[in-house]
Every structure is written in C-alpha cells, then in structure tokens.
Amino acid sequence: MTRSSTRSLQLLLIFRLLLIFTKLSYIASLSLTIGTCNLWNVMFNWRVRVQHIAELIKENEIDIMAFQEVRQTVLKTYPATSQLDEFKSLLPEFKWTFSRVAGEVSKPLNSYWYEWNKEGLGILSRKQIIASTVINFTSVGQTDTNPRIALHVKIRLDPSTFVNVIVVHFSYDRHQQCSNAEELMRYISTLELFNVIILGDFNAYTDFPGPMDMFTSKRQSSCFIKRYPNLSYLIGTFKDAWISFDSHDSTGFTFSNMPEPGLVNRPDRIIISKNLTVKQISVTGNGLAYKNNLYTSVLRNRALTVIQTSYDSFMGRHGYSCFHDCGPHGSCRCGVCIHGGNKLNCNIPDCNECTSWVFLLFLFFVVSFCVAVVTLFYSMVKALVVSSRFNQELVWDILGYRCCLFNKGLFLKIDIVPRKYKSKMASFFVICRLPPFVLMFLMSIYLFSLLCFFNVIFNDSINLIYSVLPEEMFPSDHLMVFTKLSL
C-alpha cells in the first residue's frame, strides 16, 4: 500500500470518527428536563412560595414546567393577571408560556376581594412553543362540577424534532376520571401524535388504577371493560416515567406534602411515549427546606398582609379578608390564617388586630421612627464634625493618647449649618440645635421608648403574625415531579 493510500485511509477514518462524534453529540443534545407542580392556587403566603418554586425550577434546570391550579384575575375593570406572570418575571429565560382558565373560583362567604377569580392550567417553556390547543373534557355525573380541561402544546427541540406536551388535571370523581382519560386517548389517536408527554395532577388513587391503566398497562383497564371496549387497541401505548426508571430512592408519592396525612399517594405523574428514555426522575419541594430557609420570609409576608388588611379597614372595606379558606385547623383574621381551630374567624373591620385605628397608629409610629432615626444620624454627623475641629495634642500631652470624645464642644451648643439655612431649619427642627451628645442621648432614649410602646400597642397584631399554622411551612400540598428525557 502506497503512502498516499495510507494517508487517505487515515483521513477517511478521522472523518468517520468525527461524524460519529457529531452524531453522538447531536443525540445527546436532544434531551430535555420536564416537570409538573400543583401550585395550590394562592394558598398560604403565595409571595414567598412563588420565590421558592422558581428556585426549585432553576436548581433542577427544568426546561418545560407544567402547572395546575393556576389562578388568574379576569375582570373587565381590572388588568388581566396570572400566577404565571410572576414566574415569568422571576424566570426570564422561559420565553414561551401558555395558560387557559378552566372555570370560576368559589370564594369564601362574605369575601370582599375580587382578585384571583379564575383557575386553570399553565405551562412555561425555555423551548419554542409552535402550536397550542385547549382540550375541553366532557362533564359526566354530578359529584365533580368543576370544568376540566387539558393543554396541548407542540414544542420544537431542534429544526426537525418536536415533542407534544399535554398538561392535565383530571377529576377526583372516579367515573369522570375514566371519561377524562378516554377523551384524551381519543384526542391523541385522532391527531396521531408522536413523542407525547402527558403530565400533571391525575388525581390517581392506589385503589383505583383504571384511568392510569388506560395509558400504561397491557391488561384491560376497568374503565375500558365498563365503557370503552372499542379503544382496547390503545392500551399500553405509554409508560409511567417513574415506574420505568429502575433506580429509586423513594416511593414517588407526591401527596399530601403536609403534616397530616403525609405522603400517601402519587397523583402527580409523567406519562411518556415508549420511544422516550428516562435518564433521571425525582420529586422535590418538601417542607423541611422551606421552613428552615424561609420562616422569616413567611413572617414578613404575614406582617405585610396584616398591614394591608388594616389599610382595607381604613378604606372602608368589610368582609372576609383571606384569599382562601383556612381549613379545619385554622381561622382567618386580618388576611392571615391562625392556629387554634376554625372558630376564631372574624371579618374586617371587626378584627381588633387590624382596625382603621391600628393602621393610623402604625403610620404614626413609622413616621416617628423615621424622624428619630434621621435626627440620630444628624447628631452623629454633628459629633464627627465637631471632633474634626478639635486639636487632640492637649489630650496627648495629658493622657498619652488621643481621643476625639475629649472635646467639650460635643457637650455644648454649636452651629455647623450655614447661616442661610438656620432660620428655616430652626422652625422645623428646634431639637437639632441641642449639643451633639445631648441630642444623641435623647434620640436613643426616644427610639428605645418608641420600640417598647410599639410592642405594647401592637401586641395583638404581633401575636397574630406569629400564630403560624403548620401547613404554612410547605411550598405546596403536592411535591414537584421532574424527569430528564432523551429522544
């Protein structure tokens, strides 16, 4: 073999190796991480929870995120807003979103608020959404009167590869669950969808696997046997991502992420086409990390809510102030839920902790505190100015060290303000003409007294803020599920 032939073979081998490497890199790039989370609508401290959920999405590098129980404000006289809007501001890399309202929200009796009046589903995506559709499920029976929908989005992963993502929140009624599953199977079959990912809250029960069997099991589903024998050919065309992954360190249970009854079920699932491969799957969002890291944020949010409710009382609003029912273990007072049972509810302005007088007193204390802090700062600056004018050589000669505090000017009246401003300032801040140390001492005593009076006067409101329900120390009543898939 000639040298030129050998060189040609070497070049050909290198080219083939590069081609194989390129293909492997291309295949490796065709992966995505997708997750689902039931948002628990606007329950307990939404302003804090949204920050935590956004951090979970960032930490786990999720590309596509599906949400259930997404609240929206849809009113003619009010700008349309959605919980997804808050995620978009926290996660600007998610450039594509799609959401749709399913139905009206049942407000607690005598509620005066008008926000968050609709609820539905939503999806965030780093990848381009090129098509979106709403699937309206038929309502059957009278047990579950909530309208049920699904969202279908077609997402482009690269110029020639797409996935069909379907977000669901099935009915809790078993009969209607079968109907929801059957209608979704018909939809997928009619459109001949490929690379399908179905995820969300299936409201699946361990003692009633029928709806899930329609997607993942080769055996006849009880739903099929009873109602839909003509769809039997579709049985087992999908797989449960959690079950298909061999290595697990937990049961995959996602509900209830609460002290009671604890994790007893797996309603939140990711169902995928059999050609997709699960590289990793996990659950996240337990209450321990949330409580350890965000307890102070929860208290701050509760304090802001009590202040806002006091303002509502001042503005003449009246009624139930919480955005949700506080459940059997809590009562609603001043916009927050407190422990002690469900017999302590009160409507504003009848709650002593957030009356209009409470709001006015709070304003007085805020203004007084700010004035005192500014005055104290002024006295400190004044002391520094006086000290800078003092020749410390005398102290050095007497004591052997220098100290700016040995200055009689600090205890005497002294002017440091230009003359043209004196008359104006004197009319407003007569106290500022006192000697620096005297002024500092008086302001320190005043601030201390102000804080003591604050604790006494607002004692009931402070106790209300600290009366946190155990349920509040969880980011949601469902854990988040996410999986990394390859195509």
Automatic annotation (TrEMBL):
Chain ranges passing through the membrane: 357-381, 428-458
Gene Ontology MF annotations: catalytic activity
GO biological process: GPI anchor biosynthetic process
Domain of life: Eukaryota
UniProt keyword list: Membrane, Transmembrane, Transmembrane helix
Domain Endonuclease/exonuclease/phosphatase: 40-288
GO cellular component term, pick one: membrane
UniProt cross-references to SUPFAM superfamilies, sorted A to Z: DNase I-like
UniProt protein name: Uncharacterized protein LOC106052424
Organism: Biomphalaria glabrata
